[in-house]
Amino acid sequence: MFIKIKLPYYLKSFLFIITFLLTSCNFEEGYFPYNEGKQVFYDIFFQDKENKKKNYRQSFYFLPKIENSIPVLKNDGEVIFYVFEKKGIFKKSMEDFLSSKSNDTDNLSKQLLLAFPIKKDVSWETDDVTTIQMKLGYDRFYNTNLPFKLKNTIVNTNETISINGKKVKNCIKVSGFGQTSYYPDPTLGNINIEIVTTTWFAKGLGLVKYKREERSDSETMGRIIYEKTIIF
């Protein structure tokens, strides 16, 4: 049974972004082919700090390419543009894409999603926010929404993973790590938060699996787990 839930910001944008991050990095290799009209489906698993588990499904649709940009229609109706530049791949909102100022990549460093070239040990940073919640008492929940830098590194370009019993070979594996802290009050003191992500891309498929964990050293926050897996 699939349950539809409202996604936090980073899950609504960042997690689908990486589906198309590498689309134009090297078309001839076919790792991330662009197909107008193609629809991609994913199974989503989410576990909150109370260890409550939810499953649902996402779908995404390729719109016609515009020069060096790929517009993507998300299942919530939002359109995001992925623009391919010399430095890497940038994410732009509809407003940024239509604005003449959006062509100034010096002002878009926060939107750099993937730096070139694509090879082992290449690293880049992404601006992100925490989605882990603080719980006080029985019914008081507070969103953290803490900004932090997520450092991403290509750790393997030839990995084999198993998805629902099917082996997917020659995957590109990207690991991400970020950390921040939160000081709610003197009683609770400083709370440390770590964010760990792992992403796999496969030839001809694009994003095949994504895992994210946010964990803290306080029982008031605990940890959350998010996984996204392609449906063949």
Structure write-up:
With 232 residues, the protein is mainly beta. It contains two helices and 14 strands; from the N terminus they run αβββββαβββββββββ. The protein has helices spanning 9-20, 94-98, and strands at residues 39-47, 53-62, 69-74, 79-84, 88-92, 112-115, 123-129, 133-136, 140-143, 147-163, 166-182, 191-202, 206-216, 223-230. The strands form two sheets. A twelve-stranded antiparallel beta sheet has the order 6-5-4-3-2-1-14-13-12-11-10-7. β1 (39-47) and β2 (53-62) form a beta hairpin. The chain starts with 8 loop residues before the first helix and ends with a strand.
Question: How would you summarize the topology of this molecule?
Answer:
Layout lengths: L8 H12 L18 E9 L5 E10 L6 E6 L4 E6 L3 E5 L1 H5 L13 E4 L7 E7 L3 E4 L3 E4 L3 E17 L2 E17 L8 E12 L3 E11 L6 E8 L2
Antiparallel strand pairs: 1-2, 1-14, 2-3, 3-4, 4-5, 5-6, 7-10, 8-9, 10-11, 11-12, 12-13, 13-14
SSE order: HEEEEEHEEEEEEEEE
Alpha carbon gyration radius: 18 Å
The quaternary structure here is single chain
Proportion in β-strands: over 45%
Strand order of the largest sheet: 6-5-4-3-2-1-14-13-12-11-10-7
How much is the average pLDDT? 80
Structural class by secondary-structure content: mainly beta
- The coarse overall form would be globular
Major sheet description: 12 strands, antiparallel
Query: CA-to-CA gap between the ends?
Result: 18 Å
Alpha plus pi helix count? 2
Helix content: under 10%
Note poorly predicted spans.
10-30, 104-109
- How many beta-strand segments? 14
